[in-house]
Amino acid sequence: MTAKNAFYAQSGGVTAVINASACGVIETARKHSDKIANVYAGRNGIIGALTEDLIDTNQESAQDIAELKNTPSGAFGSCRYKLKSLEDNRREYERLIEVFKAHNIGYFFYNGGGDSADTCFKVSQLSEKMGFPVQAIHVPKTVDNDLPITDNCPGFGSVAKYIAVSSLEASYDVRSMAKTSTKVFVIEVMGRHAGWIAAAGGLIEDYGIPVVVLFPEVEFDQQKFLAAVDAKVKEFGYCTVVVSEGCHWPDGKFLAEQGTRDDFGHAQLGGAAPVVANMIKETLGYKFHWAVADYLQRAARHLASRSDVEQAYALGEAAVNLALEDHNSIMPTVVRESSSPYKWSIGMAPLSEVANVEKMMPMDYITEDGFGITDGCKEYLYPLIQGEAYPEYDDNGMPRYVTMKGIAVPRKLADFEV
Amino acid sequence: MTAKNAFYAQSGGVTAVINASACGVIETARKHSDKIANVYAGRNGIIGALTEDLIDTNQESAQDIAELKNTPSGAFGSCRYKLKSLEDNRREYERLIEVFKAHNIGYFFYNGGGDSADTCFKVSQLSEKMGFPVQAIHVPKTVDNDLPITDNCPGFGSVAKYIAVSSLEASYDVRSMAKTSTKVFVIEVMGRHAGWIAAAGGLIEDYGIPVVVLFPEVEFDQQKFLAAVDAKVKEFGYCTVVVSEGCHWPDGKFLAEQGTRDDFGHAQLGGAAPVVANMIKETLGYKFHWAVADYLQRAARHLASRSDVEQAYALGEAAVNLALEDHNSIMPTVVRESSSPYKWSIGMAPLSEVANVEKMMPMDYITEDGFGITDGCKEYLYPLIQGEAYPEYDDNGMPRYVTMKGIAVPRKLADFEV
User: Fold this and answer.
1) Does the pLDDT at position A324 exceed 80?
2) Fewer CB in a 10 Å sphere around the end CB: N or C, chain B?
3) Which helix (H) or strand (E) holds B369?
4) Mean pLDDT throughout B68-95?
């Protein structure tokens, strides 16, 4: 068996630990240089493969690659670019195979969420048909935690830790001030249509904080919500609200699309938090503060979960090892062996069962009133936020995050328009 | 000299390290129990003194007091309650002295910003006149960093570190995605009329990030701002914008003005980020994301600056030692001995020179174009964010923050309406 090259790409929204998976892939490939000569990384994800813009990772030092484990975001660039179906856009899939062929790429490691699992699956099928078989392995990543089969998705644990800790800290702040000032603090969190991240905010209940969680899985009921907040403020003097960006009215309209206007007459775009906060002020009269964590939450490598970093690395490592064991069209998964103490191992799932399947939060993870999380949910969540994994800091007091040299592999093919 | 009691209160917006000052006060007082029998803490700040709602800190364990050093927010409760002038509200000042007299309180440690320095000063003057002299020492605290004489204010360094690190992390995220998705990230920061916190966001320029900072000290010029953002996006592919909540138009109107005011009559700010982001989208067409960190930034004990924690403690400690050396009507200060290496010591300022004086950011800390910080500003800021001082975490993966027992001292006086 002569050595082939591998192609690695980051896909979709990046996370605090996707580079830890990249580190796992590249470090493991380097241990098997007899079989994997080089890992070419797509500059800006799959677009790099289509445009033949490949980064030569052999030109990155061992130390820089090791530091990927502690660096947030996508060090090679990512993209939001979903390949259409094979029928609609065979041209792009064929281009991918051409690029792989031109650069002797026998392994395709695609690091992303549901869409990229689907692309990965198709590449594996088509390369077979086109007579240049490529082993396609999907490395899971998504803060939305919505991939099937795997117990959890790298990226989620760190966001969950960030939201749980930040909500706790801000709640302490409100508790301090509530006598004469702010009584309600609203924090808006990511997660699209899945309430996993919002659920992490619900953990602060265990730390004595009165909290109301608004999940995308539960239709927003304004009266019931305001009554819940009012009851908490009357009992505790204050209340924290965790609202998911995907929270919506019964007609499907997002809370963030309220149609409110600021003092300049501009439509207030985005922001379920200010909508909820103003609703509370207008109806209950409580003084509020609100925060929208946005990218801060998924980039917060400074507060990553150690479980999450370790799993992200292990899944990258496993992807390479599974490829070298001749597996194809699969995704390594996290298998939970036990919650307390937390034990996990690496499993594997066929991409045919992963592609286009969205894992929803079980409804029995949400309390009956729709505003909190159950003990079962807490048992699921805590292991994922366990442990810290701090980056190093420089003498200025800033974290040492690495930037790749990003040297391009010389091109061999004609230009291609995406 | 027979032992007297001390009164300690937290005032105004709380911080990640104000409890470290409380820890410094209480631990130091305990070392001198021959002179300071007990530290009574005002429940919810000065309101606790007015209503005779005093927390008996001798009933808190040594360990709990020690853990204050790692716990954000105001553990005894704070308040936004500014005593009116002596002429307008002599009744409240006299009540304070009455309460102090009833509980044999000879020391008044008031932990806050400019308003509380003023109150502290007045109490010291009035108690003298009323024949029950109380030594009033102000312990500085404010994330706005706007107290005079002291080189910096506890609370600011940790917010600065949080904003610098979070802005860097989110910028890495945008950089990863900019090819096909978000090109401009806007983060809104606190600081009211002072641009110190916004300036901390400007540090990320040293880490290769194209950043535009909007200071409250610089009148907002929409065209110039949009041109600056556009130039960065054209050169780097993306841009980060750090906008201060106090940023305003030439006519003085805040970008964010919501029309509501807090109890001090200050306009309640929040929401400049979406205004700025939408302006960019409408004019330049760039896809954006925005975050409003709000309380998260000042509560983020998980990312406190070690310099800041140490100074907060040292100032609390110094307050007690200075009181025991018979100083009165003063504020311990941070004196910068050198920036590189960073060396500081504790000084002292008379309250007559602190009360009602606001320290503005020097204009030569802002670059000529008005959108960045100078080398002088960086030399000032870096020492303040140096070092980490992590809290401990429990087995769940959550930080160990302490909650006081908060047992009240039995009352001796009639009720008092505030």
Assistant:
1) yes
2) N
3) none
4) 91
Nearest Cβ partner of B169 from A169, A172, A299?
Answer: A299
Short-list B138, B93, B142, CA closest to B117? B138
- DSSP per-residue letters across A177-233: HTTTS--EEEEEE--TT--HHHHHHGGGGGGT--EEEE-TTS---HHHHHHHHHHHH
Label residues A280-299 b or e (16+ Cβ within 10 Å = b): bbeebebbbbbbbbbbbbbb
Instruction: Select which of B115, B118, B144, B308 is catalytic.
Output: B144
Tell me the CA distances in angstroms from B302 to A175, A371, B161, B198, B353, one per residue in order: 18, 27, 11, 20, 34
Secondary structure string (H, E, C) spanning A360-387: CCCHHHECCCCCCECHHHHHHHHHHCCC
Q: Confirm or reject contact between A183 and chain B (CB < 8 A).
A: no
Does the active-site annotation cover B144?
yes
Mean pLDDT confidence for A67-77: 98
Tell me whether residues A291 and B289 touch, CB distance under 8 A.
Answer: no
CA-based nearest residue to A324, from A175, A126, A106: A106
Q: Which residues of B touch A175 (CB under 8 A)?
A: 73, 77
pLDDT digits (tens, 9 = 90+) for A213-223: 999 999 999 99
Q: Phi and psi of A111, rounded to 5°?
A: -105, 95
Which residue has better confidence, B2 or B304? B304
Q: State whether A173 and B44 contact (CB < 8 Å).
A: no
Extended strands (E) in A99-206: 105-112, 135-140, 184-189
- Distance, in Å, from the CA atom of B95 to the CA atom of B97, rounded to the nearest integer, reads 5
- B401–A contact, CB cutoff 8 A: yes
> pLDDT > 70: what percent of chain A?
97
pTM for this prediction: 0.96
Give the contacts of B335 (CB within 8 A, at least 6 positions apart): B151, B344, B345, B346, B347
- Cβ of A80 and B161 within 8 Å? no
Q: Do A80 and B180 touch (CB under 8 A)?
A: yes
pLDDT, tens digit, 9 for 90 and up, residues A133-166: 999 999 999 999 999 999 999 999 999 999 999 9
Mean of pLDDT values over B316-331: 98
Q: Which two tokens stand for residue B165?
A: 């690190």
Q: Determine the pLDDT at residue B90.
A: 87
Give the A:B interface size as CB pairs under 8 Å.
242
Distances (CA, A) of A263 to B98, B259, B272, B281: 47, 8, 11, 18
Task: Give the mean model confidence (pLDDT) for residues B103-119.
Answer: 96
Touching A: B residues 295-334, CB under 8 Å = 295-296, 298-303, 305, 307
Closest-CA residue of chain B to A190: B291
Confidence of residue A261 (pLDDT cuts 50, 70, 90): very low
Active site residues of A: 144
Q: B312 with B155: CB under 8 angstroms?
A: yes
Q: Are A243 and A276 in contact (CB under 8 A)?
A: yes
φ, ψ at B244 (rounded to 5°): -75, 140
Q: Which conformational region is residue B221 in: left (phi greater than 0), alpha (psi within -120 to 50 degrees), or beta?
A: beta
Q: State whether residue B243 is helix, strand or coil.
A: strand
Spacing of C-alpha A288 from chain mean position: 29
What are the pLDDT digits (tens) for B145-197? 999 999 999 999 999 999 999 999 999 999 999 999 999 999 999 998 899 99
pLDDT tens string B19-69: 999 999 999 999 999 999 999 999 999 999 999 999 999 999 999 999 999
Residue A240 with chain B: CB contacts under 8 Å: none
Confidence of residue A263 (pLDDT cuts 50, 70, 90): very low
B308 to chain A: closest CA residue = A397
Sheet of A239-244: strand order equals: A211-214, A239-244, A184-189, A288-292, B288-292, B184-189, B239-244, B211-214
Using the structure block, give the residue that is written with the tokens 């209940």. Answer: A205
